Amino acid sequence: MDKYLNNVNENLLVYGGSTLGYRKRAGVNDADDPYADIVAGVGYGRIYDATPYAKAIRILGDLQRYNIVKKDVSKQTVMKLAAIIAKQDEYRSKYSSREYKKYWFDDMGKLLQAEGATESQLDAFGIVRIEEILFEQTIYPRYHGWIVRAGVGQILSNYDNNSKDPTLNLEFAYGLPVGIRGQFFENAKYAALLNNYTGHRFVNTMTYTYELSDIIGWENRWVFDYNKASDNAGKVVHTNTISSTFAYYLSNKLSFNATLSLYKVTDGIDNNGNDNWEQKLFTGLTYRLK
User: Fold this and answer.
1) What's the pLDDT tens digit per position in 217-266?
2) Are 249 and 137 in contact (CB under 8 A)?
3) Residue 139: strand pairing partners
4) Whole-angstrom Cα distance, residue 142 to residue 51?
5) pLDDT tens figures, 49-75
6) How far apart are the C-alpha atoms of 214 and 232, rounded to whole Å?
7) pTM
8) Which site among 27, 122, 164, 219 is 20 to 30 Å from 141 CA-CA?
9) Which residues pair with 206 in a beta bridge?
10) What is the DSSP secondary structure assignment for residue 86, as one 8-state letter?
């Protein structure tokens, strides 16, 4: 959880968090000891969530195609609509998860009418179009900005009930929208166990998403994972995972996705079954009955 110190600097923050884990291995009657840790630190920078703005643009474009919105709208109107979209959790909390949508959609319709984008309140078809866009179509997250964090932590309990060590944690994240439909995101994390045999782990995740159309999305991801158990360990293990996913949505009924992934382990050991790139193709088809 982040807490910005706006009275000191609007980009300065403190943060804290914890992790809980459960593990039960196949063929073993009892589960391992639970995993638990805590971490606290400081950070600088901000990452802004622009996803509601992207959703607002998608909604207005769709309503224009169906002649519900009959003219171009101003950027201020897009921002106001995005602000209502961003309050989804507030509506759900106030009106319950079962009832909130009708109040949420109603406020969107009132805004569009007040801004002159529509001649009257949204009819049933307009509401159905908004619901389909927000809950069925593929709209990838949009982020812009950067943030760095540095903290220390403590492992309170580990699966083997032995390693209860302090940790050093560093993180960098950067988001850049690329046009209206593209998004680049970079996240790098480093963690070290501060004991007699200091261990290191570095994980870098790089993602690029692009919406080819309102119904076709394309996501590309590269994850590099470096792991050295201790400074005294002779071997370093690092893995590379590269994946590319196409998601296809057909109005209200059918969705299809296909993922091609490449996976490589480098552990310094020859002829142990992981010397070559492992290739996999996953496909999925979903049909909604109603």
Assistant:
1) 999 999 999 988 776 666 788 899 999 999 998 766 788 889 999 999 98
2) yes
3) none
4) 5
5) 999 999 999 999 999 999 999 888 999
6) 53
7) 0.82
8) 122
9) 186, 222
10) T
What values do phi and psi take at 203, rounded to 5?
-125, 120
Q: Exposed, middle or buried by CB within 10 Å (0-12, 13-18, 19+), for 120?
A: exposed
Asked if 261 and 279 touch (Cβ cutoff 8 Å), the reply is: yes
If you search the block for the tokens 């083997």, which residue do you land on? 160
In the block, tokens 């622009």 appear at 50
Tokens of 86: 């961003």
- Please say whether the beta carbons of 226 and 201 come within 8 A: yes
Q: What is the pLDDT of residues 101-150, one digit of tens each?
A: 999 999 999 999 999 999 888 999 999 999 989 988 889 999 999 999 99
What single letter denotes the amino acid at residue 156? L
Pairwise CA distance, residues 22 & 28, whole Å:
14
The helices-and-strands tally (H runs, E runs) of the chain is 5, 11
Cβ neighbours of residue 31 closer than 8 Å, sequence gap 6 or more? 22, 23, 24
User: Which residue carries 């050991």 as its tokens?
Assistant: 269
User: Identity (one letter) of the amino acid at 150?
Assistant: A
Token readout for 258 is: 């296909």
Q: Which two tokens stand for residue 205?
A: 């995740």
Amino acid at 289: L
Q: 187: which 2 tokens? A: 């996240």
Rounded distance, CA 96 to CA 232, Å? Answer: 55
**Could you tell me how far CA 269 lies from the centroid of its own chain?**
35
How many CB atoms are closer than 10 A to CB 266? Answer: 14
The span from the CA of 109 to the CA of 127, in Å, is: 8
Give me the sign of the Cα torsion angle 179, 183, 184, 186: positive
Q: Are 243 and 262 in contact (CB under 8 A)?
A: yes
Please state, in angstroms and rounded to a whole number, the distance separating the CA atoms of residues 33 and 24: 9
- In this structure, the strands spanning 237-250 and 254-266 are antiparallel
